[in-house]
Amino acid sequence: MNTTKTMCSVSILEYQRCEDWKTCDRKRTLWLVSPSLPEYQGISWDGPADGEPPMPIVPEPEPTYAVPRKEQHKFTIDNFILHKMLGKGSFGKVFLAELKSTGQFFAVKALQKDVVLMDDDVECTMVERRVLSLAWEHPFLTHLYCTFQTKENLFFVMEYLNGGDLMFHIQNCHKFDSHRSTFYAAEIICGLQFLHSKGIIYRDLKLDNILLDIEGHIKIADFGMCKENMTGEMRTSTFCGTPDYIAPEILLGQKYGTSRNSSNPSVPTTPFYPRWLPKDSRDILVKLFVREPERRLGVKGNVRQHSFFREVDWTALENRQVDPPFRPTVSSPSDCSNFDKEFINEKPRLSCADRT
């Protein structure tokens, strides 16, 4: 996959103060602007959280679809046909959408502005946008093509990964064999270590957030809980994550760093591991789930050098030159059979205000 980053004239998120917005004590809102306008080139972000310095915007690369440059900043929801709903949560919805002008398919994430503001998730939305900008530099992160807005929603247009997520697949097959588990774990490590190299910790690693592309390679998705500027000995203490996957140090209110991505306190100690689990698999789990972060594998010792990964060619893997052990069944670019039918069967629609 070509991950070369180039300039693009599609929309980007700008976070700015709204001084005349008297109805909200935060007096902050989200705006979408086009970097093709000279005054917005290289714009920095206003109002960073936790006293951190602003992070410069990284422009997106050119979209793979053919859209005249002069029109690239004019996308609206009316440029897309919403075919299916792929997921839904408190944040909003994710749709399978077709770009009318080219017939290509994308995953469009719609965030409700009022919910973002009520839940005080403005900074999370900003962080997700910034991390998605960096994702073009790595093959195992979900890629963003453009963003735009309506009166009620913010939209992220992302690549459509119709292989489904790992939760869907493990529910179907009940367990992954050793080779498949090793492959997924290795590609996930590559993606997480790339984020760490950029000073970003992920904080929401779970099967639901690991998608498969059509070839069977993984893509890490959903960057709303990421934390930026975590370089060197930097630590944070924000309580966040999915309950079943929160690390011990977060539950205890302790400061943490990149070691948080390696732990899961819901996994029991060694006597409760199944007997059929290979020795190498058991050993790496024991070392990853050490409760003391400073003793955890990945902090103490290089996780890539563990015997569990002894057959992994890391250079070939990062270049996507290793054939995936499983290729999802995909019949067409719009196939959504690898997604939860509870959502697929629901009619895909936005509010009336967004369609007019």
Automatic annotation (TrEMBL):
Which InterPro entries does UniProt cross-reference here?
AGC-kinase_C (IPR000961), Kinase-like_dom_sf (IPR011009), Pkinase_C (IPR017892), Prot_kinase_dom (IPR000719), Protein_kinase_ATP_BS (IPR017441), Ser/Thr_kinase_AS (IPR008271)
Give the top-rank taxon of the lineage listed in the UniProt record for this protein.
Eukaryota
Q: Tell me the PROSITE patterns matching this sequence.
A: AGC_KINASE_CTER, PROTEIN_KINASE_ATP, PROTEIN_KINASE_DOM, PROTEIN_KINASE_ST
**Annotated Gene Ontology MF terms?**
ATP binding; protein serine/threonine kinase activity
Listed Pfam families: Pkinase (PF00069), Pkinase_C (PF00433)
Which residues belong to any copy of the AGC-kinase C-terminal domain? 310-356
Q: Which UniProt keywords apply?
A: ATP-binding, Kinase, Nucleotide-binding, Phosphoprotein, Serine/threonine-protein kinase, Transferase
* Chain sites annotated for binding ATP: K109
Q: Which residue numbers delimit the Protein kinase domain?
A: 80-309
State the family it belongs to. Belongs to the protein kinase superfamily.
Query: What is the protein named?
Result: Uncharacterized protein
